[in-house]
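Quick look at the format.
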Amino acid sequence: MTEEFKIIQDKLNIANKKTLKQLLANKELCSEIIKRDVISEKELVQMYDVPLSYLKGLKRRRDISYFNSKGQLNVSEQGTKYFYFLDEVQNLMSYNITYNESFVFRYNLMNKVVLGFAKELLSEREANILTMLFKDNMSLDDISEEIILTRVRTIQLLNKATNRIIYRINQLEKMYNLSNDALSLRTENELLRKQNKELYRKFLRNQELNDLKSNTNVQHFLKYGYDIKDLKMSYLDFDLSVRTLNCLKLADILTLEDLLVYKKSDLMKFRNFGKTSLNELCDWLEDKYNWVLK
């Protein structure tokens, strides 16, 4: 067993040699695992009390690096275990503050949200002041001394920065509500379209059924209890001689429904269709469907 193999096995606490070989195949990933501390997804959720849904969001947005037990970096695959680099976890979610209780986690998470907005919405000085307040946990006096301003002026800057963030968050909330309303309308319209399509299909089915019921052939089949699907039966399924079937094919009579529109005199006009074929056909129709050709 190589030293690299042993280090990775100990860090990931993996006993399965096949899994370890899959990880070792990714040399770049192995190098990162050896250099950095790692933590499994199960340990991360338990130790830091991180909601799994929140963690999935971080992975989906690529806000945090991870790898699976197949040695794939930033790839989600069902049936694999996931691992994270501890330095990224601490930097992204805890600012190197150990917190095992959910209250402390939520507190630091909100700080992270505020600072994330600060970078996008505020001036560099205002963002630095919020960083000192939330991330570095400095007092107002310490912040005033650091930026060489009076305590009153520092509070004014903090209030201004806070109000700007609150205003933009309110704007985002309004935009979200409008978007959500629009989505609801689209969803409602889609449901109405589906209902209309279903109603139209029912209308067509009912209309088709009414047309069938008005059909003389259908009425005969329903009267004597025959299956109306037999009207679509292929001529090849007729229990007739090959000669008679060939005559029907030449006459372009391909289904039972095609046949029933003809009279005896019409059939006799077709090529090679003699009395023998006619008698055979009439007997079959009468025996099978109680149908008498005119």
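Next, a different chain entirely:
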Amino acid sequence: MPDAADSPERLPPFLVKAVHVDVAQQLMAHHFADAMISIQRFSNSTRSPFSTHIAGSSPAYMLTLALVPFEIASLVVEGSRSFSQRLDAGSAMIRNMQYNVSAYGEDPFDAIYFTLPQEAFDNVSRDLGLKATSLFDEPIRVVERDEALHGLALAAVPALMRPQESNRLFADHLCSAVLLHLLREHGRGLEAEVAQGGLAPWQLRRAKEYLAEHIRFNPSTQDMATSCDLSVAHFSRSFKRSTGMPPHKWLLAHRTQEAKRLLTTTNASLVDIAGACGFADQSHFTRTFTRVTGMPPGRWRALARN
């Protein structure tokens, strides 16, 4: 396996790196309003050295979500005495990136990393009508088990495996869920949220029209919220209350329905239908369509025309 240092474009920001890796994946450098968020995965299936280093930087947090158990043999904060830390599958470590933190170990590992600037937490708080606040002030917090964070980490894995097929709406939803959960459960907490109602009829109609108009592209939640004159958090909650599903799932259902229409009313090839409905390529179309309908599009077309 190549040294991660040989592929600087794959390294997460803030000097986080692994010495040897089997997998080094980056889903995106995602703009949540004016804040950049990245989601990455590093893993190594063999026992070999790994290290990370965070040099004190602008206010931000690094969330490490362990997919398998592994031991960090040495953690050093601001040059102080080192200590070890075991992370079990489903546990998490949150590092305040304003401190110099180094880590070293040799265990096989597999983890998802979220880099979360303070601006992202500020944006979420403002969207909820609350005062912006930092997550916490100390260098490190370890969470022994958090089923919600573990589920969010697992949800990121398929998208990291095929970043070219990633849905921006899904990524928006995932990042927002991580930020809100961290603030509510592992930070200073949130006061009662504003009342959660559905979209007004004109807003729901506009949101669906916007998604339909952008079926071939990857629309962002920010753009959809703007079209409805709402904040991102308010729009996402209200859309789900009105439709029973978040925007990215509604778009997937709409793409599948449009694909069914084209399969039954045209002789277009599968690759052309894939492009017309916003799938990355034919294989992406086939996998998604099969997962939703239980059969590949070619077979579905044949049965629908009989």
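The domain at 4-186 is CATH 2.60.120.10 (Jelly Rolls).

See the schema section for token definitions.
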